[in-house]
């Protein structure tokens, strides 16, 4: 039946992670560092509010844009934590996970012929979403020696007049890189000069381990040019609830709301109610999770460096991105052989773009005991490669 | 006042005191020397008052009985409740001792091998003490949570995907 598939879907390459997933699924007793979601369960107070809402029979649709109470609380939260100012009535749209928000941004603003600039390496969805919106993608390399921060020189090289949208996703998955205010300011200049829009995917913003996160939307003149995307999955360990949001200029939000109302109608109500509770009463639980990630992060960086590998210090998200090129293996070969020999699953850097070659992504959303065991196994593997 | 680093350190130890200073150093970025010194200070200042695991005795099958005892006390001039509390805290049978607001004054958590043990302790040692007006003993039937640790049921097993983007 393949001939029925639309060409642009048939030609879309499968996720680089998929092949690996299938391989891991056939093996037993694997320690996986391959998961991009928290290992914590959603804080109890949040779960409890979801349960209570079900008991009360709150099982209906909400308005397309989402519960007004949630949008209001969110506007307040964004203002207090990042100095952002959004009108909950017209400038915030609650989505089914941040993933839907990414898709909506792309579909609302892109047309055939447009080009989207995406930092490389980065999360796997941006490219395919742009393609589905009829646009083309151009990857902008980032480099380990620059701590994987996006630089204007690389943007300039990638730029052409067809470019309409720039994706910024910091703290970054897979590298763990962050962009601080002084790193973002020149990008803002570039955006202004070329009259671009920015999709700022700030989903990992709460997981910043040094200084505080600066949102691109908070920079001078960037409020209207930025579509601020985030969600509850990473901060509050709520991946399965599927609640995200996008905030931005009312003209753009109303365009996205049109697509959302025809394709999704609204985000799940139970998740929205739980998200409201998360904003109101789970900040302490969130801080505790962040503190736990930070401890693991230090352990991981030290672990890889002690093996003799280069590992830049990730200051955000929950990934380390060690350089495995000294083992003379490609990213994919490293991941495959590590899995076969030591039963540890990591994700090859190339799953996140060509600049990921020579690196592997290791998630530290696992217990300290699991991480220590995994580091030991990887250490043995690396030592054997070094002695070849 | 605790510094943010010290607060972080204490919070880790409060949950699990088995980490060595070297391990704590790896996790926090503080030097092992500094950590050793801080813990020593806290031991001395009784900020860290003890190092005890949370044991779920019910699972061991050992015979053990505990009771919560409400005690009304006549406060002593110049000392309030402190003098009697100081005396009570010496009894090894008393595991916790707290001054309460409300209908009674002191709350005691007592542990013994049998109900008889506990009853004897209350009747012979506690009740006859000077200044103690009355006691009310409530036996613990089952312990569900202790010191922040859930004792009931199996641990929640997370069914996460093995690999996800």
Automatic annotation (TrEMBL), chain A:
It holds the Pfam family Aminotran_1_2. Its EC number is 2.6.1.-. Residues 28-378 form the Aminotransferase class I/classII large domain. One of its GO terms (molecular function) is pyridoxal phosphate binding. SUPFAM superfamilies: PLP-dependent transferases (SSF53383). Its cofactor is pyridoxal 5'-phosphate. Keywords: Aminotransferase, Pyridoxal phosphate, Transferase. GO terms for biological process: amino acid metabolic process. InterPro entries: Aminotransferase_I/II_large, AspAT/PAT-like, NHTrfase_class1_PyrdxlP-BS, PyrdxlP-dep_Trfase, PyrdxlP-dep_Trfase_major, PyrdxlP-dep_Trfase_small. It comes from the Bacteria. Gene3D superfamilies: Aspartate Aminotransferase, domain 1, Type I PLP-dependent aspartate aminotransferase-like (Major domain). Belongs to the class-I pyridoxal-phosphate-dependent aminotransferase family. This is Aminotransferase. The lineage of its organism: Bacteria, Bacillati, Bacillota, Clostridia, Eubacteriales. The gene is patA_2.
UniProtKB/TrEMBL annotation, chain B:
It holds the Pfam family HTH_24. The keyword Cytoplasm does not apply. The gene is lrp_1. The keyword Ion transport does not apply. Gene3D superfamilies: 3.30.70.920, Winged helix-like DNA-binding domain superfamily/Winged helix DNA-binding domain. This is Leucine-responsive regulatory protein. Residues 2-63 form the HTH asnC-type domain. InterPro entries: AsnC-type_HTH_dom, Dimeric_a/b-barrel, HTH-Siroheme_Decarb, Tscrpt_reg_AsnC-like, Tscrpt_reg_AsnC/Lrp_C, WH-like_DNA-bd_sf, WH_DNA-bd_sf. Keywords: DNA-binding, Transcription, Transcription regulation. One of its GO terms (molecular function) is sequence-specific DNA binding. It comes from Desulfosporosinus acididurans.
């Amino acid at each position: 039946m393949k001939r029925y598939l639309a060409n642009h879907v048939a030609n879309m390459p499968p996720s680089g992670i998929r092949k690996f997933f299938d391989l891991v699924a056939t093996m037993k007793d694997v320690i996986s560092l391959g998961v991009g979601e928290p290992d914590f369960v959603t804080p109890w107070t949040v779960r409890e509010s979801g349960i209570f809402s079900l008991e009360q029979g709150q099982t209906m649709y909400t308005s397309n844009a989402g519960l007004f109470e949630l949008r209001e609380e969110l506007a307040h939260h964004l203002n207090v934590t990042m100095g952002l100012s959004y009108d909950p009535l017209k400038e915030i749209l609650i989505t089914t996970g941040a993933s839907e928000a990414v898709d909506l941004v792309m579909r609302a603003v892109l047309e055939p012929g447009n080009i989207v600039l995406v930092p490389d390496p980065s999360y796997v969805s941006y490219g395919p979403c742009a393609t589905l919106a009829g646009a083309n993608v151009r990857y902008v390399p980032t480099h380990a020696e620059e701590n994987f921060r996006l630089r204007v020189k690389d943007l300039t090289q990638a730029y052409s007049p067809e470019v309409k949208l720039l994706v910024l996703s910091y703290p970054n998955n897979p590298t763990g890189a962050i962009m601080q205010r002084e790193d973002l300011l020149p990008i803002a200049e570039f955006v202004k000069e070329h009259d671009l829009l920015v999709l700022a995917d700030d989903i990992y913003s709460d997981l910043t381990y040094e200084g505080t996160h600066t949102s691109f939307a908070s920079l001078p003149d960037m409020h209207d040019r930025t579509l601020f995307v985030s969600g509850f999955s990473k901060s509050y360990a709520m991946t399965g609830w599927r609640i995200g949001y996008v905030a931005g200029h009312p003209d753009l939000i109303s365009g996205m709301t049109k697509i959302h109302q025809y394709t999704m109608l609204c985000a799940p109500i139970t998740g929205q109610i739980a998200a409201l509770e998360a904003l109101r009463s789970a900040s302490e639980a969130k801080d505790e999770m962040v503190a736990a990630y930070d401890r693991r992060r230090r352990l991981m960086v030290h672990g890889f460096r002690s093996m003799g590998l280069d590992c830049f210090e990730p200051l955000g998200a929950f990934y380390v991105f060690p350089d495995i090129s000294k083992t003379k293996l490609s990213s994919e070969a490293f991941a495959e052989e590590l899995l076969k020999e030591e039963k540890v699953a990591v994700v090859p850097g190339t799953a996140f773009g060509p600049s990921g070659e020579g690196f592997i992504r290791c998630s530290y959303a696992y217990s300290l005991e699991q991480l220590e065991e995994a580091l030991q196994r990887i250490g043995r593997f690396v030592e054997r490669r070094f002695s070849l | 006042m605790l510094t943010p680093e010290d607060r972080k350190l204490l919070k880790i130890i409060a949950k699990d005191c088995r980490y060595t200073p070297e391990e704590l150093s790896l996790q926090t970025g503080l030097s092992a020397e500094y950590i050793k010194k801080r813990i020593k200070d806290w031991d001395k200042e009784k900020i860290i008052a003890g190092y005890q695991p949370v044991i779920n005795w019910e699972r061991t099958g050992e015979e053990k009985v505990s009771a919560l005892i409400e005690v009304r006390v006549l406060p002593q001039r110049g000392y309030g409740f402190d003098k009697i509390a100081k005396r009570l805290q010496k009894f090894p049978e008393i595991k916790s001792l707290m001054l309460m607001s409300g209908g009674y004054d002191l709350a005691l958590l007592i542990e013994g091998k049998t109900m008889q043990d506990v009853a004897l302790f209350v009747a012979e040692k506690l009740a006859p003490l000077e200044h103690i007006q009355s006691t009310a003993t409530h036996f613990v039937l089952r312990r569900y949570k202790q010191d922040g640790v859930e004792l009931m049921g199996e641990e929640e097993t997370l069914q996460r995907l093995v690999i996800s983007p």
